[in-house]
């Protein structure tokens, strides 16, 4: 077992997540690593999400619930959570997913043993009511040259040093980062000269049901393309890297099975 001298602050945004929220929270409550706090921001849910959160907070003092004054989106919710962080490390968690029970333990051990690394992600496995799906992988040691090709880290799996996230200023709020706040974060992360690595093990289960695909609207793909176009200039990459700004749009048109095959080719 890893020493539990480092507190992990897990940040989560919730909007109408009552059907999956309990399972997500239970996966944190039952972690083998117990020195954590779960900071959850409810984004003006209209279902029972807030009531569920408040019940968990009453039972476990490590859980803190805050609310937005109006529905504002994930990036704003996560920034609200960041205001209350007291841990040495910050981890992400989505309200419809599941963390494997030793996820925090293994990521804390990694950061403790690798002081030169600022952020660590993991592989994640897709699941739905039909069962388990493919394992989503990333390069073990991504560099700035990998960012335009696709996400260098699976956003919901990351654990990052608190000082690093503070220097990055959290998530950027603009019309171009709606549903693409992670894409923007990766560009700023590598522009800042930070280093990240991926644990080559699926420590996170990501829900990929019909609702997940419905959320991938075309306008969000345009947002991602915009960020890639300008991000390549921020990273001072060769101009031909701008062609990758077409990738989100093309990806939106492709069936899921083809997307998975292309993704696997890109990370090799």
**Fraction in beta strands:** 15-25%
Shape estimate: globular
Helix content: 25-40%
Give the total of domains. 1
Number of strands: 9
Per CATH, the architecture is Alpha-Beta Complex
Q: Give the rounded overall mean pLDDT.
A: 91
Say which CATH homologous superfamily is assigned. Spore Coat Polysaccharide Biosynthesis Protein SpsA, Chain A
Low-confidence stretches are none
Task: Say what the CATH topology is.
Answer: Spore Coat Polysaccharide Biosynthesis Protein SpsA, Chain A
User: Biggest sheet: strands, sense, closure?
Assistant: 9 strands, mixed
Distance from first to last alpha carbon: 32 Å
Q: Tally the helices: what do you get?
A: 10
Identify the CATH class.
Answer: Alpha Beta
Helical/strand content category: alpha/beta
């Amino acid at each position: 077992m890893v020493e539990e001298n480092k507190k992990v602050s897990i940040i989560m945004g919730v909007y109408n997540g009552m059907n999956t929220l309990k399972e997500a929270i239970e996966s944190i409550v039952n972690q083998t690593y117990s020195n954590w706090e779960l900071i959850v921001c409810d984004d003006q849910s209209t279902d029972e999400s807030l009531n569920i959160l408040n019940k968990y907070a009453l039972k476990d003092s490590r859980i803190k619930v805050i609310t937005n004054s109006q529905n504002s989106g994930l990036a704003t919710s996560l920034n609200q959570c960041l205001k209350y962080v007291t841990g040495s490390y910050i981890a992400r968690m989505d309200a419809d997913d599941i963390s494997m029970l030793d996820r925090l333990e293994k990521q804390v051990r990694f950061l403790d043993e690798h002081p030169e690394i600022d952020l660590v992600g993991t592989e994640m496995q897709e699941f739905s009511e039909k069962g388990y799906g493919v394992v989503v992988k990333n390069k073990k040691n991504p560099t700035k040259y990998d960012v335009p090709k696709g996400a260098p880290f699976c956003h919901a799996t990351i654990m990052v040093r608190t000082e690093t996230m503070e220097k990055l200023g959290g998530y950027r709020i603009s019309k171009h980062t709606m549903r693409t706040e992670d894409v923007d974060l990766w560009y700023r992360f590598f522009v800042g000269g930070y280093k990240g690595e991926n644990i080559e093990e699926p420590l996170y289960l990501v829900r990929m049901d019909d609702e997940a695909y419905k959320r991938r609207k075309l306008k969000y793909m345009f947002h991602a393309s915009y960020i890639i176009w300008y991000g390549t200039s921020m990273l001072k990459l060769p101009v031909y890297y701008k062609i990758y700004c077409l990738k989100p749009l093309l990806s939106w048109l492709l069936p899921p099975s083809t997307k998975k095959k292309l993704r696997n080719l890109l990370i090799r």
